[in-house]
Design a protein that fits this description.
Length: 276
């Protein structure tokens, strides 16, 4: 009788463990259908709301979009699990921020991005630029490099060919055709500087925030993909279905149609251009 009781207890325990195991398996296999995506206020939260969210909702997701006014909180919120993905940053920033804050972040896909442009209220084209003109440029290394590359592409300066194009600075200018006078200022102040200088190199996000029309630029940058914004997730989530569905949404023709209609002037990444 005693042996029978022990046997019954063992069978009961085995049954309970099996039940728990099946529940865990079922829980693990349940696909996540509620997503929280972060983006900075302006064009990129608009991109999520207008071009990504509707496609994901058709796939059965409930999507909440959280807007941020800085470039720090979106990654911290992603790292601590408050967000499932974010959209606001380029590759260089993502990698540096992740390293400095001990985060493990990965890109999902690069999206069309507002390019930096050269703007002027004085000149109608770069051909009109006079000798000694003053140009406002960003004072941070990443955006400064972008500004100098535009000026080189337009034939106004020549840069040392041996330097890394992602880290080039004023000291790498070898030839200054128009003797441009560089005025470094904080990137967020560049839209205002258009009123006070001859030329200004304004990053696309700041131009749009100031209600500037990207297509009014005298020149728009031929932006390397490293500078384009991307959807970012925690690396541990890369293989999850919701991440695959976000990537599929951005790769869709529906997404590109919204970009063409509502985000004019945004530069498309190589993968989007190459599929034509």
């Amino acid at each position: 009788m005693k042996k029978l009781s022990i046997l019954l207890v063992l069978l009961l325990l085995i049954g309970l463990l099996a039940a728990c195991g099946s529940k865990e398996t079922a829980s693990d296999s349940t696909e996540k259908k509620e997503l929280t995506i972060g983006a900075t206020s302006g064009p990129y939260s608009d991109m999520v709301n207008k071009a990504i969210k509707p496609i994901l909702e058709k796939k059965g997701y409930q999507v909440k979009v959280v807007e941020f006014s800085d470039y720090i909180q979106p990654n911290l919120a992603l790292g601590n699990g408050d967000l499932d993905a974010n959209l606001f940053q380029h590759k260089i920033y993502m990698e540096k921020f992740a390293e400095e804050n001990n985060l493990d972040l990965s890109e999902v896909i690069i999206v069309p991005t507002a390019p930096m442009g050269i703007y002027s209220n004085k000149f109608k084209s770069l051909d009109e630029v006079t000798d000694g003109s003053q140009i406002a440029i960003p004072n941070d290394p990443t955006n400064l490099a972008r500004a100098l590359l535009i000026l080189q592409d337009e034939g106004l300066i020549t840069l040392d060919s041996s330097v890394n194009p992602l880290t080039v600075s004023e000291k790498d200018v070898k030839e200054n055709v128009k003797n441009l006078q560089f005025k470094p200022i904080e990137a967020g102040q560049l839209p205002r500087s258009v009123e006070s200088v001859d030329l200004a190199a304004v990053p696309g996000n700041y131009a749009l925030a100031a209600k500037m029309n990207l297509l009014d630029a005298l020149a728009l940058e031929n932006m390397p993909d490293d500078y384009r914004n991307r959807v970012v997730v925690n690396t541990k989530d890369l293989d999850k279905q919701f991440v695959k569905d976000i990537k599929e949404a951005v790769e869709s023709e529906e997404f590109e149609k919204v970009i063409d209609e509502q985000f004019k002037g945004f530069g498309k990444p190589e993968w989007m251009l190459n599929r034509k």
